[in-house]
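Escalated from tier 1: sodium ion holo job.
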Amino acid sequence: RSLAEEMRRGISVGEFFLEYQPRYETNSRAIRSVEALVRWAHPERGRISPADFIPLAERSGLIVPLGEWILRTACQTVAPLDGIGVSVNVSPVQFRDDDLVAIVASALAESGLAGSRLELEITEGVLMEDAERARGIIGELKALGVKLAMDDFGTGYSSMSYLCDFPFDVIKIDRKFIADIEGSGGGRAVVQAILGLGRSLGLSVTAEGVETNGQLALLARDQCREVQGYLLARPMPEDRLRDLVAGAA
Ligand code: G
Ligand code: G
Ligand code: MN
Ligand code: NA
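Tier 2 regenerated the structure:
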């Protein structure tokens, strides 16, 4: 059977699950929110990476039902965690679906999660396909109180102009820039420029992929508000997240 058929079967029998990676306030080290990341535990092939099945899910359209399940599950899991928000990655293909706004509204309503605790992470791909359509949908999502983050910032072609032209709340600096900040190649200057841009536009900036204490120290010195990465916490299953938030881990 093809991987697409396997995915369809896997969705129906519940082989997909979510992990959650905490995002920390740099100075207080408090967890403000978590990023939901989908995982597939295949019975014979073992764990299949989202880097392999998300592109397939996008081509086959399966990302629409899978993405709906991800949104509902993430909202339900995080709603009981007081003071914690959740970020969900949303694919350009989900923006082509007429039901996205209704799905987000009902995921919030059925979980009881306030709209302000949900953040949708999009890449510039969402805006490139049909900017005017995306603008309309984003307006409806923002009317629900939902926050909007630009993911993988700096890796695309036009993320700078999109940042000014759409109502983003958060910039997530792509981890490839964070990997370079300790070197002598000007990586830190690039990150400082993005932080300055965030300050000027009134946006919160999150650094992704923080893996070393040296990177964390530089980001703190440069006043990057939030940090995420293996140094602080890896993506984890929901029971471990609950323990961590309750202070047991
Ligand atoms: O979690 P990991 O680093 O293996 O993810 C690999 C890629 O898959 C990343 O680009 C990430 O954004 C994407 N991804 C992970 N979870 C989701 C999800 O729930 N929805 C979408 N659309 N992409 C996801
Ligand atoms: O495309 P997006 O930024 O959503 O991808 C997030 C992915 O990055 C997740 O799959 C997550 O597993 C991965 N990730 C999170 N923290 C780190 C890190 O510190 N280093 C690396 N290499 N990957 C990370
Ligand atoms: Mn992301
Ligand atoms: Na990213």
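The pocket of guanosine-5'-monophosphate (ligand 1) is lined by residues 36-38, 49-51, 54, 70, 89, 91, 235 (CB under 6 Å).
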